[in-house]
Structures are given as structure tokens and as C-alpha cells.
Design brief:
Elements (H helix, E strand, L loop, with lengths): L5 H9 L1 H28 L4 H12 L12 H49 L4 E4 L3 H13 L3 E5 L2 H9 L4 E3 L5 H6 L7 E4 L4 H14 L4 E5 L3 H9 L4 E3 L1 H14 L1 H11 L7 E6 L12 H4 L1 H5 L2 E6 L5 E3 L12 E6 L1 H11 L4
Parallel strand pairs: 1-2, 1-4, 2-3, 4-5, 5-6
Antiparallel strand pairs: 7-10, 8-9, 8-10
Helix pairs in contact: 1-4, 2-3, 2-4, 10-11
Organism: Thermostichus vulcanus str. 'Rupite'
Membrane topology: Multi-pass membrane protein
Subcellular location: Cell membrane
């Protein structure tokens, strides 16, 4: 006996029109069965059992002989009964088959699309946990055009992520098998946004074991967790409570400065952006030159706000005499076009 696929069952449950049509078909078939039975019992004066039997074999068109001889009136009614039965059954079969086919093909299309999206992932970010923090991270990545994959154990969370158009994988991100399926070896970074500090720490350690080059950012609920995550090699351990408190204080004391920083760090409708560029001796032609000689500002229009040396030294507002060294991280501000031109100047071979 044919079975109904889960996708088709879900389609039946979700689509009220399909439910209504199938209910209408069942009601029509039941009405035809009742009409035929009553006719043969009351008009033809047959016993109830024979009336029901005649109605069933007529509607199923099995080709059995008449239970008792029928006159012209009875035969005309039987013809009408067959037509009504065929229409009712045909309508039900058509709607049910359409539901099965649509459910099967839609699910297959979704699976193929998901597989292609997974296979195309490279230099992407993994977002572990699709709670309030994970959703906000995904929203910012989407606005920036950054490839990412959402991972969560909850079916509802994964469904919500896919409804928003995100590539999502249902699974336990603390397991190596899930990380491997998420192509952690090809990933650029990991956002551990699970509610548990222990789980975030475990995810970071697992990911760094599978991909030592991966950049990790983790949520921490306490200062102790911050320290443990930093000792585990997390590039950035962030506490929503501590960071939120600092931002609220800054908004109270320096509201315009906070608005400006927010405007260049996040959002879709930004005019200016902040970007960072790391200088490599083999790739950047300006390594060993001063900022004045490189003349990056007039060539691109972008402003170099700060430089972080390879040894950790931070130079804010660098002057024209500042020398560009290998491993320097330039923090730059400008429009998207200005930053694009600056990137081409710094990495002409890319």
C-alpha cells in the first residue's frame, strides 16, 4: 500500500484549500452512496443489504451483474449513479494525487537547493544558535553580503531561519560530525551564540581542532566565562550584558558619537563603512613606505583611522610619517567605493 510522505502530510495539514476540497469530495461520495442505497431500498423495494451492495458495486464499477432485474427507470438511475460516483472519486483522486506530487517535488527541489547551497559554502561563517543574538548576527551578515550557515538543534529555529532565506542546518554544533557537515574546514569564522557558556567553550575547542585557522567569536554570560574563552584562544569573547551596559552608558553620555559609530558599523542604509586590511610584505606594494609617500588617502578617498602593529601596538590617527610595516592592520573608513579602491591599491594581485 502506498504511503504518504511527511512532506505531503505537512502539505495536507498546512493548506486549508486542500483539506476543504478533500472534505468536499468525501462528502459528495458519501451523499452518492446514501442516495443510491435509499433509491434501491425505497423505490426498487430491495432489502437494505442488497441496496447497499448494489450501490457499492455500481460506484466501484467492478462489473458484477445486477442484484435483481431493473427496469428502464432503474437502469437510468444506475447510469446517473455511476456518473456521480466517477465524478466524486475522480475529484478526490485528482486532488490527493496533486498533493502527493506537489509535496514530493517541492521537497526534492528544497533538498537540491539546500545541497547546492551547502556545497557552495567557502570562507563562510558558522552561526551556532539561532536565538536573539544569532538572529541579529545573521541579519547583519545578510546586510553585508557575508556567506554564513545557521546551525541549531531546534526544528522551529531552523524553519524560521529558512523562512528568512538563510542557509540553515539542523544539528548539534557541539558534535564534530555536525561541524564537518557544516564544512568547518573551509569556514572563515565561527560565532558561538549558544545560551550556555560551557557549550560555547566546547564548540570553540572542537572547531579549532578541526580548523586551527578559524576565527572564533563567542558569547559569554559571566566575566569568568570571558576569561576562560580567551584562554581557549577565542579571538573575541563578548558578553551581551557587559557590552550592553557599556553601550547604554555611552549612549547616555555621548549619544551623537554612539549614533555615528552605529551608523558606520551596522545597518543596510549606511553612507560610510569601517573596514580593516592586513598588510603582507609579498602582496602589498606599499609596505616599507610612509603614509605620505603611499598617498592612499588621495588615491582612494578612504581615511586610515588607526593602525595596529603586529606586536599589538595601536596607533590612532597615524600621521604622514607613519611607516607601513608587514603585518600591520589598517582600520579604514570611507564609502563602499572608496574602500573598494583602497583594497585594490593594497592588494593589486587579488
Amino acid at each position: 500500500m502506498a504511503s504518504v510522505s511527511p512532506s505531503s502530510s505537512q502539505a495536507l495539514k498546512r493548506d486549508p484549500k486542500i483539506q476543504r476540497d478533500l472534505s468536499l469530495g468525501l462528502g459528495a461520495l458519501g451523499s452518492v452512496l446514501l442516495i443510491g442505497t435509499l433509491w434501491y431500498h425505497w423505490v426498487e423495494r430491495w432489502p437494505w443489504v442488497e441496496a447497499i451492495y448494489m450501490t457499492v458495486i455500481t460506484l466501484t464499477t467492478v462489473g458484477f451483474m445486477e442484484v435483481e432485474p431493473l427496469g428502464n427507470r432503474g437502469r437510468l438511475f444506475t447510469v446517473a449513479l455511476i456518473l456521480m460516483g466517477v465524478l466524486s472519486i475522480g475529484f478526490m483522486v485528482n486532488r490527493f494525487t496533486e498533493t502527493l506530487i506537489q509535496g514530493h517535488f517541492q521537497e526534492e527541489i528544497r533538498r537540491r537547493k539546500w545541497r547546492k547551497q551547502m556545497e557552495a559554502l567557502s570562507n563562510h561563517f558558522l552561526i551556532g544558535g539561532f536565538g536573539r543574538i544569532g538572529r541579529q548576527v545573521a541579519q547583519e551578515f545578510q546586510a553585508e553580503g557575508i556567506p554564513f550557515l545557521v546551525i541549531d538543534q531546534s526544528v522551529d529555529a531552523i524553519h524560521a531561519a529558512r523562512e528568512l532565506g538563510y542557509v540553515a542546518l539542523q544539528g548539534d554544533i557541539t558534535l564534530d560530525a555536525t561541524l564537518i557537515e557544516a564544512r568547518v574546514q573551509q569556514a572563515e569564522g565561527l560565532i558561538a551564540a549558544l545560551p550556555s557558556d560551557a557549550e560555547n567553550l566546547y564548540v570553540v575547542l572542537s572547531a579549532r581542532t578541526l580548523n586551527p585557522r578559524i576565527r572564533t567569536i563567542a558569547r559569554a554570560n559571566t566575566e569568568e566565562a570571558l576569561q576562560k574563552l580567551q584562554r581557549a584562544g577565542v579571538a573575541h569573547a563578548i558578553s551581551p550584558y557587559i557590552t550592553g551596559g557599556k553601550r547604554m552608558a555611552a549612549a547616555a553620555l555621548r549619544p551623537r558619537a554612539v549614533d555615528f559609530v552605529d551608523g558606520i558599523l551596522s545597518g543596510r542604509d549606511r553612507t560610510f563603512y569601517l573596514e580593516e586590511y592586513e598588510l603582507a610584505a609579498q602582496e602589498c606594494p606599499y609596505v616599507g613606505q610612509t603614509l605620505q609617500k603611499a598617498d592612499l588617502r588621495s588615491r582612494s578617498g578612504a581615511l586610515i583611522v588607526a593602525i595596529r602593529r603586529a606586536d599589538g601596538q595601536l596607533i590612532g590617527g597615524p600621521s604622514g610619517d607613519t611607516l607601513l610595516q608587514p603585518g600591520d592592520l589598517l582600520l579604514c573608513m570611507g564609502t563602499s567605493e572608496q574602500l573598494r579602491q583602497l583594497g585594490q591599491l593594497l592588494y593589486p594581485l587579488h
